[in-house]
Amino acid sequence: MSTRQPRLNQQVLLDTTPLPASVPPVPEIGASSAPLLSASFFIGARCGAFNDDYMKCKEEARGRGEIDCMREGRKVTRCAASVLDDINKNCLEEFRKHWKCLDNNNQQLWHCRRPEQLLNKCVFDKLNLEKKIPGSPEGETPIHLRKTQTFSHNISSIREDEPQV
Amino acid sequence: MAQDLPPTGGYEPVQYKRNLPARGFRPSYYLFAVATIMTYGMYKAGQGIRERNELAREKMWARIHLIPMLQAEEDRDLVRRYWADQAREKELLGGNAKVYHSDRFVRPTFSISPAKSTKE
Q1: CA distance, residue B32 to nearest chain A CA (Å)
Q2: Model pLDDT for residues A69-107, shown as the tens digit of each residue
Q3: Which of A12, A87, A147, B39 has a C-alpha 20 to 30 A away from that of B92?
Q4: What is the similarity comment for this entry (chain B) (predicted)?
């Protein structure tokens, strides 16, 4: 994530030794930031328990979490990969539209409410994952469901003439 | 010689007031108008701040949902390098010296230059 690869003498030196065979292999996610942002709330909806488990394990491992919590970490990665896989299988078109919109709009969610509505509907219908923002005030429409986005410059974000989903 | 006296009936009143027309509305009307504009503006600003707070919450939770996954990937990579270093050290020196006075995992900050350089 944040590690800088060591660069010596204008050559990229990468340690390519794989993990030992005793560690079960897990394919890495390999998605870039916009698809991850687009899918983040669905990852949170399905994998919240695994995520919390992993972070708790790291906290309780007192500085040895990198090695001791590899099992939990694999679960986290597998779960997130399963969500992305399911979205790719079931809602590929909506997903692409949304993360491309995010990529074109500085990854600011409020410019892409219309594609987000379509994606949320598709994912809720087919995967039963719902976007919920914890801690948002009671009795108010959640920000991603509002009809007007004050800060949006994107006319296509939400249009009144289109049917709301 | 006759003394200089005021005219009969006294002098004319001295005009000390300025004779300027009062323009515009009464001052209180302007006060109310400005107060109304300010109230409306502050209300809209408050609405905007609340909406921005919600957007910030949304962004923060999006990251919170992603952090464990990114951290797990990073940790796996670090552990892979660390174990590779340990294996290399054991192969070259015949044993693993304890470098740090701690059981904590220390992120490897060095790299061994391999015999063959990797192509990017």
Answers
A1: 28
A2: 999 999 999 999 999 999 999 999 999 999 999 999 999
A3: A12
A4: Belongs to the complex I NDUFA13 subunit family.
Bridge partner list, A8: A11
Chain B positions touching A60 (Cβ under 8 A) are none
Tokens 């006296």 locate to B5
CB neighbours of residue B42 within 10 Å: 10
How far A96 CA sits from the closest chain B CA (Å)? 18
What is the three-class DSSP state of B98? coil
Give the strand pairing for A7-8 and A11-12: antiparallel
- C-alpha pair distances (Å), A59 with each of A52, B68, B75: 10, 12, 14
- The packing angle between helices A92-104 and A70-90, to 10°, is 110
Chain A with chain B: Cβ pairs closer than 8 A: 151
Asked whether the CA dihedral A131, A136, A140, A143 is positive or negative, the reply is negative
| Out of A1, A43, A69, closest to residue B65 by CB | A43
8-state DSSP, B24 = S
Render pLDDT for A111-137 as a digit per residue (tens, 0 to 9): 988 899 999 999 999 999 999 999 999
Q: Is A9 helix (H, G, I), strand (E, B) or coil?
A: coil
User: Whose CA is closest to A46, among A95, A86, A75, A80?
Assistant: A80
For helices A113-127 and A70-90, the axis angle rounded to 10 degrees is: 100
Pairwise CB contact (< 8 Å): B68 & A37: no
**Contact, B76 vs A19, CB < 8 A?**
yes
CB B96 within 8 A of CB A146: no
- Containing A12, the helix (H) or strand (E) segment is strand A11-12
- What CA–CA distance (Å, rounded) separates A99 from A96? 5
Enumerate the residues of chain A whose CB falls inside 8 A of the CB of residue B117: 11-13
